[in-house]
Amino acid sequence: MKILVAVDFSPVGREVAHAGYRLAKKLGSGITFFHCAPQTARFLQGYDIKAFVSSASRDDQKKIGEMARHKLHKVMEDVFAENGVSESLDIEEEVAFGDPGDELLNYAKEKGVDLIVVGYKSYSAIEQLLVGSTAAKVARYAPCSVLIYRPNKC
């Protein structure tokens, strides 16, 4: 079994990482901690952006990716410190760029994921209204089962 855990660095996202890992340990399944970083040239989607994207913005994107990998790794370290490291589990980490819902769905399809674990909300209600709910999109279109994590303090 393969579990994909969406980590967005919000307080709920961190709880999702812990809950997803505890579930993977109980089931003895592989787990991928997944974060989707923002694209610096996202507003140019649909255009031939190669002509518009400078080397500086490519460097910025690379820095964002490095920061995201570092933060994701830190979340994983916190999860392992609290829950113990299971040597028997296949544990991976993945950072993608783009729309979080789309990237989660694409990764799940490509890798044959059996379960996606997402948080019920991100940073703010305004962000959810403007961007749309990642959890709702994943639940609607996922090629596998989806667990929407809700913390006790909703």
- Estimated structural class: alpha/beta
In spatial order, strands of the major sheet run 3-2-1-4-5
- How many domain modules? 1
Query: What portion of residues is helical?
Result: 40-55%
CATH architecture: 3-Layer(aba) Sandwich
N-to-C span = 30 Å
- Based on Cα principal axes, name the global outline: globular
Major beta sheet, specifics?
A: 5 strands, parallel
**Content of β-strand:** 15-25%
Low-confidence stretches: none
CATH fold-level assignment: Rossmann fold
Overall average residue pLDDT: 86
Number of strands: 5
> How many helical elements?
5
Structure, explained:
The chain is an alpha/beta fold and 154 residues long. The protein has a single domain (2-149), classed as 3-Layer(aba) Sandwich (Rossmann fold), CATH 3.40.50.620. Helices cover 47% and strands 19% of the residues. It has 5 helices and 5 strands. Strands 3-2-1-4-5 form a 5-stranded parallel β-sheet, with helices on both faces.
Structure in a nutshell:
This protein has five helices and five strands. The chain has 154 residues and is of the alpha/beta class. The protein has one domain (2-149): Rossmann fold.
Topology:
Blueprint: E1 2-6, H1 11-27, E2 30-37, H2 55-83, E3 91-97, H3 100-111, E4 115-119, H4 125-131, H5 134-141, E5 145-149
Parallel strand pairs: 1-2, 1-4, 2-3, 4-5
Helix pairs in contact: 1-2, 3-5
Features:
single chain, 154 residues, alpha/beta, Rossmann fold, 5-stranded parallel sheet, 5 helices
